[in-house]
Amino acid sequence: MILKEALPKIITGSLPGSNAEKMIQRRAVATPGAIRCVYPCVIKKAAGAMIEDVDGNIFLDWVGGVGVLNVGHAHPEIIAAVKAQADNYFHSMFNIVTHEGYVSLAEKMNEIVPVAGRVKKTFFANSGAEANENAVKIAKAFTKRPNIIVFSGAFHGRTALTMAMTAKKAYAKGMGPFPDGIYRAEYPYLYRKPGNMTDSQAISYYIEKLERVFDEASPAESVAAIILEPLQGEGGFIPAPFEWVKRLREICNENGILLIADEIQTGFGRTGRLFASNYWQEGGFAPDIITTAKSIAAGIPVSAITARAEIMDSVPGGVIGGTFGGNALACAAALKVIEIIERDKLCERSMEIGAKCRAVFAGWQEKYEVVGDVRGLGSMLGIEFIKDKSTRTPAPALVSALVAECARQGLLIENAGTYGNVIRCLWPLVITDEQLDTGLTIFRQAIEKCTAPGT
């Protein structure tokens, strides 16, 4: 069977295998320990949702490069597109020489990205953090204001600015002082809302918490932008309630504040729409700026910033740009990725996968005391694990055990969340039904093993 249709199979008995162990030892000597990895897998080749390691073990990948591989590993059409571009040239800095791939990709992004406004413009950077940092620069240029508002649970990157924007300071330990003008409001985490509030009451509560920032941190007239993830990634796969976003949009409109959607992890079909902001657009509250990266080019580094033309055209010359932004190979890959997503109806496939898995996970929620919450959009689903349903105490040790046990059985899963107690699902959208079913079985068996008496 070819690799993209294979099922997980561990042939070495224990993990890592001998060849992988040698490479992991080399890694420890040659690379910083801060870039840690708990997975006993050293990749040799991959296809679709499957990875073969250097010892011949086959793993089912539910991490997908942390949301990078929506169209799967090593898609042959993307390989062909990159090879064809490589035959002509690798790189031409866009400030110096115009190349068609950059322009074509910008045109396509302007067509499909659901920001407010009829005429749009896009430019490219290299990473999600760069995209978010540039979005902030653009918002400040347009509004002539100094401050931004971010949220609890947010992850926006690891540059100096985006470390300050990111909520969890484990990602920024010892890195201060941080840039000024960044103020934090509370994100609506409905599973852990205060007291006995209804969801509607909680949304009003979180809006009031945001408005207090204007009184206690930065006046509204000094706020350039509010930036949020439509569905928090590192924060625990927590969707922003649509009613809350709608009210956020109204607050921005009333106060001349730009609304920025960080779609680094949610974009390109993951949530059942091409972008999570498509849901917002359908409700009449589209954002002003959208940042994207990760699955945009199937693993080749590139990110994008899209906004309406009047916002983009407010930026002074020289303030935005960069040597490698919109690299020709990356643009070729991204154009093919978008073509594949649209042609192969991967947004629809995302909804199918999400509906199936949400039903399975809901069954687990009823059956297992440790499954506290199931949430998400499309196939971007998170499962929050707790010690018991009465206290909802987070269970990060259980999640760590689940990650390790699943890996031993050939399934790669990843944790998330403020408390480290959420499993996030980022499988490639090209995963087969048989692979999905096999992964669900491995996951369920791991839950039962890791929660059995005496474990």
From TrEMBL:
MF GO annotations: (S)-3-amino-2-methylpropionate transaminase activity; 4-aminobutyrate:2-oxoglutarate transaminase activity; identical protein binding; pyridoxal phosphate binding
This protein's UniProt keywords: Aminotransferase, Pyridoxal phosphate, Transferase
CDD domains on file: OAT_like
Entry annotated with the keyword DNA damage: no
PROSITE patterns: AA_TRANSFER_CLASS_3
Enzyme class, spelled out: transferase
Family: Belongs to the class-III pyridoxal-phosphate-dependent aminotransferase family.
UniProt protein name: (S)-3-amino-2-methylpropionate transaminase
